[in-house]
Write a structure and sequence with these properties.
Two copies of one chain form a homodimer. The first copy, chain A, has 16 helices and 27 strands. By secondary structure, chain A is α+β, with helices and mostly antiparallel strands. In chain A, strand 17 and strand 18 form a beta hairpin. In chain A, helix 5 crosses helix 6. The interface between A and B is large, with 79 and 79 residues.
């Protein structure tokens, strides 16, 4: 879909745009507009409902701003850093390793600060912006810091770089709320922060971003089997293992476990995540599971996998990270806080192990857009599934007179009351269809003169532009059935032979 | 309900608790547990759905962390301050005006810094904590500040003290997305921050809190009438006007306007907000509308009202502020950013005026709890309406054997699939009822031996503990009807004459 300028549509139609535009914008911050915030809301709901209802997770909501201790425990204070280098002339900051990579076209993976520094000096990299000389690179901590409270007794505050630690901190309380049973899961959705040196990739690399992170606490002696694994074991996936990173293999979740590439827990959440992404509207063929190489994995993790989306513009985009974090985090909180994190099961005292399933929520907003963008002739539309489309149905009067707007508003109100995300609009019908195509609204309802006679309306399907005539009283039921896949669109009513005025959406923008 | 220790139940049952407990907690930060986060989520949904669906507002989501300029424009950098005074011995900070009020038992409203300083010296107030001498009071800015980006070119960042300005900044974009029509509304939900000097009142005064703020932009020449005002004009409200603050008057929204206490826009959102709070489960008799006095209102506002809840523990709690903000904010952004905020309507160039409806979301979580807490004998329950209760229905097997758990799980799964917030649990039935009463779950379903024979289950009503027998196939429909008020509980099935084992919930905790 390279011919569609996604970022242009996103801005123009109000999905998202760079924040603080009137003050010149600040890199790494985006604002979701009316369509984007609804799309994001529904993606979040899909993830949350899945983990709360289907996986039985507890939902919690902790503050974003925290004292510094938890990040001492987690290691962020010490090592949540990137190599920064600044132009000595204009002050522009850069990721030192990225600059070197761009210059030499070679990977800097695993290079030490000294190696990068030497590389920069040797290759003669200058400031890409003004040509000035670069200073000495240094480790730059990516946490935003502030002070909590006034005066002498104020303490250092940090904007959390991940939700995970804010879920681990109240582990004891959560364990007791779950009546001391293992395993149990907890999910938290919310903002996190990363003071990137020089973020450039729109929604993909934000300084303020949204996450949905689920943590599963378990007895390490009892962590081999996932009780629902059978439900996903036939799920076919594209897989890249840690040892062969340049070869994709198609295999089932069951084979992933049988061939000992991953344990049941990780395989289960890989398969589940792919299903979730598909339900959001991403094409399955663009998704793959990639295992982290041994030299890339965090030191405390015994196994880490990502699900990646293949973008035509940005290459591979990581959508979720699934990691076995062992007992590292809880143990560190126990060490730093001096509070007990052990549990006692049948006389065995141990710190539970954790499997983390960590979704970004901004990236799916982008990848769903990219995956759903379609062009047919001069028509651009997003074929979002009704579960995530910002609006599910739009209602229009054919003309702005003769009582049709009032009648259309009534149909709109009824759909709203029935729980649909509905929208009311007026104007030239072709133009209205065009607008809803670009908003990805799956269904449009037009109220016309016949409606006054027979209480039926024209229902138009976004994807094939087919139209049927449906009784107003049957509209909510029919829409529900179609959306849930229990009814074909064409069966919803009488096919409309001649589209006529409420036609093919050939309007100019 | 003074006999119920709400904060104890809230902590024990996982509604909310002070954050960072393992690190000694930090005043002004709370974590929502499994029940509280669901309750908050549903309160947010109620507000959001109302404004998006019923009021036709656009939804947007802007970053929390911003550059400093917007807060220069709004006046927060200069005057978002409290008077701080610290103990010279132990360093403990205090609100200087509050200390003086406590000592003299007289209001410090409207006092200047100098007057408060003199008052403190004259009355000989010491540090309440250690008895040490107090330092000089000073204006303390309540914004959390940080730096965005590294090195020389970093800029000052602020955690927003309100969502409002982050909605005003993209005004032009929103105006264009709404196709340049006035009036139009925009709502934003999200966190905001206030670095309180010494927060002490739990969820009522947080340093990190959640808001839901709607902004309505309008032509000042066309701001007299609200097109839906007729819908609320008969709504009866308890009112306190700016001139007579110690007298509550009962009057309709219509009379409020007719007697010129408020305009239609403000009266409409006062009435609408009260209806929303009642739908959340707050008793109408505890709610009142209070107009700000002239000496208390912000200088840029031409009229401001609060809806207050009468708490037995905390006195009057402000739940929403409804203010006419004139063209102040947009004009200030135009002045500071040099970007045009005017619109052109029929040749008239003007800056739109704004009516703001600003809800806190943490406070309703508390006031709904307080208003819904009921005690009957040794039974404590929350009579949350099903629209906001964390879970709507809980499903249990009568015993943990003979296939009943499997059957109960199936009923639970079906309810989940039907869109209910359902919960599965096992144990002694009386104890399970007791637990769900304390969680405010309106309905419990018990699967027993008869279920295996006749496919029916016992449905138990939280408020009166009555029980009926309902066919499994009819359960989702019956629950929907009861929840929407279309069916009485007793009509949902055959009354259960003898509660027997699945009895009166007399279990000990």
């Amino acid at each position: 879909m390279t011919e569609i300028n996604l970022l242009d549509i996103a801005k123009r139609r109000g999905f998202f745009w760079p924040s603080f535009e009137i003050y010149g914008s600040t890199a790494g911050f985006y604002t979701y507009g009316p369509l984007g915030s609804l799309l994001k809301l529904r993606i979040e709901k899909l993830i949350r409902d899945h983990y709360v209802n289907k996986e039985g997770c507890m939902l919690i909501e902790a503050p974003i701003l925290t004292p510094e201790e938890p990040w001492v425990a987690s290691g962020h204070v010490e090592s949540f850093t990137d190599m920064n280098v600044e132009c000595q002339k204009c002050g522009e900051p850069y990721r030192a390793d990225h600059l070197l990579e761009e210059k030499t076209k070679k990977s800097t993976d695993g290079m030490s600060m000294k190696q990068v520094m030497d590389g920069i000096k040797k290759s003669g990299v200058k400031c890409p912006r003004c040509g000035g000389a670069l200073g000495e690179p240094y480790d730059y901590n990516l946490m935003f810091k502030t002070y909590i409270g006034p005066g002498k007794n104020k303490i250092t505050g940090c904007l959390r770089p991940e939700t995970a630690q804010t879920t681990y901190m109240p582990f004891r309380r959560l364990y007791e709320l779950g009546r001391k049973k293992l395993p149990f899961g907890v999910i938290q959705l919310g903002r996190s922060y990363r003071n990137e040196i020089s973020p450039r990739q729109g929604l993909l690399r934000l300084r303020e971003f949204s996450q949905a992170e689920a943590q599963f606490f378990m007895d390490p002696q009892d962590s081999k089997h996932h009780k629902k694994f059978d439900l996903v074991k036939k799920k076919m996936m594209t897989v890249v293992t840690k040892d062969v990173q340049d070869k994709e293999i198609a295999m089932t979740a069951g084979d992933l476990v049988k061939k000992k590439h991953a344990g049941e827990w990780i395989a289960y959440y890989l398969a589940t995540s792919i299903e979730l992404f598909e339900r959001m509207g991403m094409e399955g063929s663009r998704l793959r599971c990639r295992q982290h190489r041994d030299d890339e994995r965090s030191f405390y993790s015994s196994d880490t996998w990502d699900v990646e989306f293949k973008s035509e513009t940005f290459g591979r985009i990581e959508l979720v990270g699934i990691a076995s974090r062992t007992d590292y985090d809880l143990r560190r909180h126990q060490e730093v806080s001096k509070q007990k994190m052990t549990v006692n099961v049948d006389g065995r005292e141990f710190i539970p192990h954790v499997i983390e399933v960590a979704y970004g929520v901004d990236r799916p907003v982008y990848t769903v857009l990219e995956s759903c963008a379609k062009r047919e002739g001069d028509r651009t539309y997003f074929n979002f599934p009704p579960t995530v489309s910002p609006y599910q149905v739009a209602v229009f009067p054919l003309v702005r007179k003769d009582g049709l707007p009032e009648l259309a508003r009534q149909v709109y109100n009824d759909l709203n009351e029935s729980g649909f995300y509905a929208l009311y609009d007026e104007g030239f019908i072709g133009k209205l269809y065009y607008r809803q195509d670009e908003a990805g609204t799956p269904f449009c309802v037009t109220v016309d003169y016949d409606t006054q006679k027979d209480n039926s309306v024209t229902l138009r399907n976004r994807d094939d532009q087919k139209q049927v005539r449906v009784k107003i009283s049957e509209l909510p039921g029919a829409l529900s059935m179609i959306m849930q896949g229990h009814m074909e669109f064409s069966k919803a009513g009488k096919a409309v032979a001649k589209p006529g005025d409420a036609g093919k959406g050939k309007a100019k923008s």
